[in-house]
Amino acid sequence: MRDEDFEKDDPLYASGKRESGTSWTVLNGDSKVVSSALATGSINCVITSPPYYWQRDYEVDGQFGLEPTIDGYVGNLRETFAAIKPALADDGVVFLNLGDTYYSAKGRPHGKDDKHRSRRLPGLRAVDGPGLGLPRKSLIGIPWRVALAMQEDGWTLRSSIIWVRKSAIPEPTSKDRPWRKYEHVFLFSKSPRYFFDRDGLDGEEDVWFIEPDRRSLARGTHYAPYPRALVERCIAVGCPEGGTVLDPFVGGGTTMYVADEMGRSSVGIELNPDFCALISENMETLGEPIG
Ligand SMILES: C[S@@+](CC[C@H](N)C(=O)[O-])C[C@H]1O[C@@H](n2cnc3c(N)ncnc32)[C@H](O)[C@@H]1O
């Protein structure tokens, strides 16, 4: 439902306002490019889960996650956050969820996944072929590589929160290592003093036990939604009431739905226009008066 008033190369896909005074905006494009157009200081809190390295195909040209080198992937993310920085308020924070990838170097394509179309990746993944510069079977350490690159760029790393899923997906083919049950949620600030409400932690500290959602508005055409409770926690601690949340890799839109329900404005950036259409439709429905 693109608003025809906007130019073709304008990233604005759809937007709306709520009676409470908050607003929502969906931008279609590459977050590394689009973020630099956001108004200075207009964002209070960034909550996002970018594509992990060689885990899924989001079926759109220019997507992150399928770079031939580790440095290429880390570079794309650090440049995106550098482009976001001017838009983040001086007392703003970033919650960055990232998962890791193993360097299989098997020399043959990743096994077929008939259930998940998005997990079928084109040809030989960079993590299946030779030349990544690590011993075969290595855990790459992607989350920390990104975190340290952002630190080099001047971001203050305040916490490496461990998000634990008790019901994590089993990895029965991995017989010589523990299966993965956690991911990272890095907390960065732009300045030494920033908005943070410890009450929102609900008694937990830097280990968060949050289960995946069984049902999610972000499912359907989309593949990897994170749980609403994860976003709720980040908003409760990191975004003042009435503030604005940005998700530069908004996917199925979880961040925007939760922000809206918690009385925050939201901005989502997404490269795949099909996901922009899904989110816009959901946001319009969520805003309809009940009864
Ligand atoms: C892991 S998913 C996000 C899922 C989201 N947290 C949710 O709950 O639905 C990452 C998203 O980033 C999008 N994406 C990939 N490269 C992008 C880029 N350069 N700019 C903007 N979006 C991108 C993908 O299309 C995908 O929808």
From TrEMBL:
<dbReference type="Pfam" id="PF01555">
    <property type="entry name" value="N6_N4_Mtase"/>
</dbReference>
<dbReference type="InterPro" id="IPR029063">
    <property type="entry name" value="SAM-dependent_MTases_sf"/>
</dbReference>
<dbReference type="GO" id="GO:0015667">
    <property type="term" value="F:site-specific DNA-methyltransferase (cytosine-N4-specific) activity"/>
</dbReference>
<keyword id="KW-0949">S-adenosyl-L-methionine</keyword>
<keyword id="KW-0238">DNA-binding</keyword>
<dbReference type="GO" id="GO:0009307">
    <property type="term" value="P:DNA restriction-modification system"/>
</dbReference>
<dbReference type="GO" id="GO:0003677">
    <property type="term" value="F:DNA binding"/>
</dbReference>
<keyword id="KW-0680">Restriction system</keyword>
<dbReference type="InterPro" id="IPR017985">
    <property type="entry name" value="MeTrfase_CN4_CS"/>
</dbReference>
<keyword id="KW-0489">Methyltransferase</keyword>
<dbReference type="InterPro" id="IPR002941">
    <property type="entry name" value="DNA_methylase_N4/N6"/>
</dbReference>
<protein>
    <recommendedName>
        <fullName>Methyltransferase</fullName>
        <ecNumber>2.1.1.-</ecNumber>
    </recommendedName>
</protein>
<keyword id="KW-0808">Transferase</keyword>
<comment type="similarity">
    <text>Belongs to the N(4)/N(6)-methyltransferase family. N(4) subfamily.</text>
</comment>
<dbReference type="GO" id="GO:0008170">
    <property type="term" value="F:N-methyltransferase activity"/>
</dbReference>
<dbReference type="InterPro" id="IPR001091">
    <property type="entry name" value="RM_Methyltransferase"/>
</dbReference>
<feature type="domain" description="DNA methylase N-4/N-6">
    <location>
        <begin position="43"/>
        <end position="279"/>
    </location>
</feature>
<dbReference type="GO" id="GO:0032259">
    <property type="term" value="P:methylation"/>
</dbReference>
